[in-house]
Amino acid sequence: MPNWLAPCGRPPPYPQAPVSELFGGADELPAQLTLGVDGAGKIVSVYWHLGPGATPGVSAAGLQMARVRGRLCRREAADAAAAAADAASARDRAKATLESDDLALRASVLGAAANASYSLEQRADADAAGPDAAATLQEGAAFHCEKHGAGSAEALCATLETARCADAAAAARLLEIWKAWGLYRVGNESGALRYTVFEPTEDHVVRSVAEYAHAKAREKHAALAGPTRDHFATPAAALAETEALEFADAAHLEKGDT
Predict the structure, then answer these.
(1) Which among 42, 61, 86, 236 has the fewest CB atoms less than 10 Å away?
(2) Is residue 176 a contact partner of residue 169, using CB atoms and an 8 Å limit?
(3) Is 228 in contact with 180 (CB distance < 8 Å)?
(4) Residue 1 CB coordination number (10 Å)
(5) What is the pLDDT of residues 87-113, one digit of tens each?
(6) Torsion of CA 21, 22, 27, 31, to 10 degrees
(7) How far, in Å, CA of 106 to CA of 112, rounded?
(8) Do the Cβ atoms of 221 and 182 come closer than 8 Å?
(9) How far is residue 107's CA from residue 28's CA, in Å, rounded to a whole number?
(10) Cα 148 to chain center, whole Å?
């Protein structure tokens, strides 16, 4: 590299210092290459990370939304105690599915709210039909992101949001806002672990599930103020009325961790 030790001699925006100085004068630099591959094995994207911060096992592509097939389940129960018991047994059901179903990726048992229990399952193929569920609230294409290394865990906090929009255009716009907000919170809020948002239903309903490491992380997100929150929350509020269910004892299971 001819400009490793000497400036390139060209005007800005070209670097005005030797390349070695830009990386602290090191003789060797850590480098990382991430390849994006489609279902046919064809390379469709290439990401380089050069210099400090290149970490083995961490994608150089950064945090992204993955398209998956999701199923959000709501199981009715006779009372609150029965709903809590069903949520506990749902963990065993989710574990069995992850072990037996090759396309199953992850599952979150959110817990009980009133006289029902809630869970979220995700599969690798957004177009493939999964096993029948006892009570499916919504099933179909969804978008998911999570922190690197955020694997199976218990005693999590979760929030299920349901937004009812006036028409398809408002629902489509809300989906894009929530996708961007999900990426922001998982990428920038320390306790935000993962976020999933479903594509709108035919009656213009958009649902999302956010999971946090603990209650303080969720409270910190709820208390977020200033330009960042205004950038997401203000336009979202103008598009739909949103209901939220909060869960204080959720569990998450990843394939391979069970």
Answers:
(1) 42
(2) no
(3) no
(4) 7
(5) 888 899 899 989 998 889 999 999 998
(6) 180
(7) 19
(8) no
(9) 42
(10) 10
**Spatial CA neighbour of 221 closest among 190, 175, 258:** 190
Give the start-to-end residue ranges of the domains of the chain: 1-58, 66-254
Residues contacting residue 141 through CB under 8 Å, at least 6 positions apart:
67, 68, 69, 70, 126, 127, 198, 199
Phi–psi pair at 111, nearest 5 degrees: 125, -160
Residue 256 or 238, more confident: 238
Which DSSP string do the residues of 134-199 spell out, in sequence order?
A: SSEEEEEEEEEEE-TT--SEEEEEEEEEEEEESSHHHHHHHHHHHHHHHHHHHHH-TTEEEEEEEP
Query: Are the C-beta atoms of residues 220 and 159 closer than 8 Å to each other?
Result: no
Q: What is the mean pLDDT of the chain?
A: 83
Closest C-alpha to 5, from 23, 53, 31, 30: 23
pLDDT of residue 126: 55
- Range list of H helices, 55-133: 80-100
Hey, which residues does 43 pair with through a beta bridge?
Answer: 37
pTM of this prediction? 0.75
Q: 66-254, which class in CATH?
A: alpha beta
Q: Which one is predicted more confidently, 224 or 57?
A: 224
